[in-house]
Amino acid sequence: MMQEPTVYIVDDDAAVRDSLTLMIEQAGIYVQSFENAKMFLNAYRPDFFGCIIIDVKMPSMDGLQLQEELTWNKIRLPVIFLTGHGDIPMSVRAIKGGAIDFLTKPVIREKLLICVRAAFAEAKKRISDATGHQVVHSSLVKLTRREREVMQLAVQGHTNKEIASFLEISHRTVEIHKSKIMQKTGATNLLDLARIARENDLLE
Question: The domain containing residue 55 runs over which residues?
Fold first, then answer.
């Protein structure tokens, strides 16, 4: 069961942490705060759900380094940067790294809450996408060697007759294999099957 979305704040300034916590909790949203990146990473659990607000300038590990660490560890929490020391190159790097937004201090409460709610929506989408990917991947594992061969040739654009000739099997057998492939993968057509195969690195 998915837990309530939470805002995880990482900022070395206690006054900022307290101010942000008050603003966000007044909107009925759960908050956890951490004074540095290491404390957050040590506390992180796979069931963390919501978004993370990160200060850029912090000792030891700064916000951009933390963002890279999140990506490296496949932590899917959407990132909002909040800083009093931002510049354009920094914001470009943050957004290119996948950040939802790059806000400057002091932030207007309404703007912050809009960003947080957008980040929550993105968090739900990421979990849904990841779950769908896992389901498809487990389905692909169930394909037989012959079904994989047929799939490879089919998504490359070969006709059933050509596939039958390549694999030295009957036209009817190709049709049966393709039907089973579509059932197992949940693909609705060949284009959809090609997308699934590409996303799971099954195209040679």
Answer: 6-134
